[in-house]
Amino acid sequence: MPFHRGVMDLQHGRCLARLQRRGDAIDALRAAYDRFSGLQAHPFMRASESELGSLGLRPRPDGHPDLPGLTAQELRVARLVASGLSNREVAAQLYLSPKTVEYHLAHAYAKLGVHSRHRLANLVRGLESPGSST
């Protein structure tokens, strides 16, 4: 019953968003979108996208499809942080200042609804590992 589970995830995400639990709402809405995408249920995919959009997430052509709203640079920083590098090491690898890395990291946290490097790393690794599914 993946369709029914998708509807439940969508409604749950809407409720969480109204309760101002942004990170949990994003997780539920992404789960709904993934289920509807697998079923090719386009109206429900658009509803999920709309709810994610109301939380400030927009798909970007230069970003990762499962990490909507991240700029290409935020995505690069998030991937390097997920690999275990410190802000200083990320800065050196991308030829940026550590403050610029902090800036991109703060925006990635806000857009993804996470509050720690550990949660960001788990999210990025979970989406980019082969055979991962939601």
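Second entry:
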Amino acid sequence: MMQGRITVTQAGDLRVHTFTAPEKGWRVNSHIIELPSQLLVIDSQYLLPYAREVVSYCAELQKPIARLYITHYHPDHLLGSAAFSGPIYALSEVATKIDAVGDRVALEEHEKFGDDVPTRVERPSCIVKPGADTIERIPFDFIHIEHAETQDALMVGLPGQGVLITQDLVYNGVHAMVGEKAFDTWDAALEDKKSLTYDKVLPGHGDPGGKELYEKMQRYLSTARDIYSQSRDGDEMKGKMIRAFPRHGGVGMLDQQKRFLFPSG
């Protein structure tokens, strides 16, 4: 039985299938863009069992996975890549980061989860150039976003369908990784993207939604910034964040970010 959950976004003749991992996998999303004769997968999951579920679901669609895009180097979007075959695409900045730190990240997470995480990372073999492109006559917009959750990340827009796959620019009902402490620039990026014409927003964690997700994310970041400034250590911040957002999932993210926010703790 599948442990993850599938949500289908219908946009004209195009469908995007969103696989959301269960709580153990931080409710991270892999988005499957179903084109006429092929599938494009955006991000590969954190743990291999859930990545294999994505691959199995794709097989049910009876179309090959032509490309796997990795939006940024964080382990929850990257480490499941070993379950996929075929070319891996990433921005040049993201590919460089994965090459530099990916194996270390894999080993750290392997120590926590054993064989549910590989001991080395799969490296991108194809570079994504930001800007407009067309795949199977479908227009795409590949957007390089900087200094939001992390320094460099990819968003994927389908302008003809009004769909924007934001990945970790936006979380929905899931605790966010604020370890890089880019509260102001992240907020500015959210404010900027509100003006885009996309009305369907597919986040990196949690359920798809609309433009209302930008303001929800801004409120979360404002609260996280205030709580961080008032907390002595990661455990105190975790407790306060859970009380502030009692219905949010992805509690493991609050543990993951402790060593970045409170390195001497």
